[in-house]
């Protein structure tokens, strides 16, 4: 009986805490300017407004994206990769060594000089043999060109279709041409069906990216990608709840305008179509800089930062929304530096475009491993376990 009373009181206390937290979280002064509130977004007179509970729809959409992606990669991306000459890489298999394998899995994949000396004593290998073993072991875990091609083709397909759909839904809207129109009548802005689905599909897609990021190819900007996905999800969700939908649709359109160029450049890069990759990348760089470093900060952020305060006093939601936009802008600057660096290298030295976020490191070490394996074959005959070295250097298509 005492245990029952204890758990009953605990449940009652928990419910009170959750209720108090909910009341604090949804208080109107956090979300709306003074004098406005949730009552202003109640459906009336045949007009429909965005509601927070609508966001739950994004969860099954995210699940559908995850399932459909697996189907797409198998039935569309893989045949397309074969058509373009992208093949599954056969990696060199290292001889099994329990000591080195344990160190690789449990401590680090990149041992320093002192641990290498210790491992040499434990295994009887030379320092060069230990370094080569770890290099080949890391290479075994690297994603193949086919895996990277599948991911790029999936994102290319979504970003292209999302940009076309977003442009179609906004082409006849006045706030696409006059940004001040996005605040006319705020917050009593009627929700259109096209806006509803545009929001839910984008939110579901970024939710699926956040879930799949653990299994996707790891890049050097992995942490920045996580920040970007989280900030984007918060931005979409918050702008929906407070009816910043017109601003939100413009922000999503700007972001989708360049991403499909990048993904298509990657696809051609993995296929070995160097010229196509390079020129598409230059187009991507130009669109990215114009959309992310000019239109986004000087038009959209300016309009969300300056114009609203002429209509109402700043409030928490105003600062929160613009703060998220500034987080995205910082990421845009970070990526723009990498993009400009690659574009300058291509334009001044006519070098091939490499993805500085990840592909450069992966490709360099992979190619180094293949070259070492070729030397080993010339000296020692067939490589370990009977596997042959697969050549990833496809011919250029002029």
Automatic annotation (TrEMBL):
<feature type="transmembrane region" description="Helical">
    <location>
        <begin position="319"/>
        <end position="344"/>
    </location>
</feature>
<dbReference type="GO" id="GO:0046513">
    <property type="term" value="P:ceramide biosynthetic process"/>
</dbReference>
<keyword id="KW-0256">Endoplasmic reticulum</keyword>
<feature type="region of interest" description="Disordered">
    <location>
        <begin position="353"/>
        <end position="398"/>
    </location>
</feature>
<dbReference type="Pfam" id="PF03798">
    <property type="entry name" value="TRAM_LAG1_CLN8"/>
</dbReference>
<dbReference type="GO" id="GO:0050291">
    <property type="term" value="F:sphingosine N-acyltransferase activity"/>
</dbReference>
<keyword id="KW-0812">Transmembrane</keyword>
<keyword id="KW-0444">Lipid biosynthesis</keyword>
<feature type="transmembrane region" description="Helical">
    <location>
        <begin position="156"/>
        <end position="176"/>
    </location>
</feature>
<comment type="pathway">
    <text>Lipid metabolism; sphingolipid metabolism.</text>
</comment>
<keyword id="KW-0371">Homeobox</keyword>
<feature type="domain" description="Homeobox">
    <location>
        <begin position="100"/>
        <end position="144"/>
    </location>
</feature>
<protein>
    <submittedName>
        <fullName>Ceramide synthase 2 isoform X1</fullName>
    </submittedName>
</protein>
<dbReference type="InterPro" id="IPR001356">
    <property type="entry name" value="HD"/>
</dbReference>
<dbReference type="GO" id="GO:0003677">
    <property type="term" value="F:DNA binding"/>
</dbReference>
<dbReference type="GO" id="GO:0005789">
    <property type="term" value="C:endoplasmic reticulum membrane"/>
</dbReference>
<feature type="transmembrane region" description="Helical">
    <location>
        <begin position="279"/>
        <end position="307"/>
    </location>
</feature>
<keyword id="KW-0443">Lipid metabolism</keyword>
<feature type="transmembrane region" description="Helical">
    <location>
        <begin position="196"/>
        <end position="214"/>
    </location>
</feature>
<keyword id="KW-0472">Membrane</keyword>
<feature type="transmembrane region" description="Helical">
    <location>
        <begin position="226"/>
        <end position="245"/>
    </location>
</feature>
<dbReference type="InterPro" id="IPR006634">
    <property type="entry name" value="TLC-dom"/>
</dbReference>
<feature type="transmembrane region" description="Helical">
    <location>
        <begin position="55"/>
        <end position="72"/>
    </location>
</feature>
<keyword id="KW-0539">Nucleus</keyword>
<feature type="DNA-binding region" description="Homeobox">
    <location>
        <begin position="102"/>
        <end position="145"/>
    </location>
</feature>
<comment type="pathway">
    <text>Sphingolipid metabolism.</text>
</comment>
<keyword id="KW-1133">Transmembrane helix</keyword>
<feature type="compositionally biased region" description="Acidic residues">
    <location>
        <begin position="361"/>
        <end position="371"/>
    </location>
</feature>
<dbReference type="Pfam" id="PF00046">
    <property type="entry name" value="Homeodomain"/>
</dbReference>
<dbReference type="InterPro" id="IPR016439">
    <property type="entry name" value="Lag1/Lac1-like"/>
</dbReference>
<dbReference type="GO" id="GO:0005634">
    <property type="term" value="C:nucleus"/>
</dbReference>
<feature type="domain" description="TLC">
    <location>
        <begin position="147"/>
        <end position="348"/>
    </location>
</feature>
<dbReference type="InterPro" id="IPR009057">
    <property type="entry name" value="Homeodomain-like_sf"/>
</dbReference>
<keyword id="KW-0808">Transferase</keyword>
<feature type="compositionally biased region" description="Polar residues">
    <location>
        <begin position="382"/>
        <end position="398"/>
    </location>
</feature>
<keyword id="KW-0238">DNA-binding</keyword>
<comment type="function">
    <text>Sequence-specific transcription factor which is part of a developmental regulatory system that provides cells with specific positional identities on the anterior-posterior axis.</text>
</comment>
